[in-house]
Amino acid sequence: MSLVYIFAASGMEGQPVRRIGVPSGSNSTLRCGPNDLVLITSGMGQGNARSKAEAALRSALGAPAGPKPDAVVIIGLCGGLTVSLPEGRIVVYTECRSTEATKPLLRCSQTIVNSVIELLKASSVFCDRVVGITAPYFATTPDQRLALAQQGAAVVDMESYSVLETAAAAGVSAAVLRVISDSFDRKLPDFNRALNADGGLDGRKALKVALSSPIQTAKLLAANKRAMQHLGKALDVILKAPFFA
After folding, report:
1. Predicted confidence (pLDDT) per residue in 124-147, tens digit
2. Fold (topology level) of 2-238
């Protein structure tokens, strides 16, 4: 039996895990095949992700807390930085970059990555190996996406690097499984105007941004919903697999 910590930025992104897993005992653990899953909703942004990862992995970092997991898996939505990645495409990170030039490239567990790719292929779920980059802002225009792509990445998110960095410090194998929710050509509402100090969204400001761009917001929400359906199918395969130990 393997213990796997699953990190998702939002309740919506974590919903497939709650649907797949079966509550185990009186704690927050979900049983899924040979795995015990602990779903951790971090909140959006690098600061929130780092805080939740450090709290969850405190025992592995040398402070009293719960048991050390066998693996960490980060899931959720991401944005495409190349025209070759359509919306709905499942991606597995081989590596993750930071927009901070002084930060090193972080590599994901090759064993988990290879196992995920092979299992999804056997289940007829198409998946790409990609290099991801974690940014402190939304890439809302093709120009912003191109600038991130020029740093050597194919997809962008706002949390993965912080969790991977914490997992590496704790000596825990980690992987990132995401789905493209917005493609290179899609222009998004400027939710950067609603970001708070932790890189998360200020609810009131986000509502104002959404109301000022109702059509773009509606299209984005619809794309997110479609993307999560694809991710749910992939997670239904992966989270029941015995390769996390």
Report:
1. 999 999 999 999 999 999 999 999
2. Rossmann fold (3.40.50)
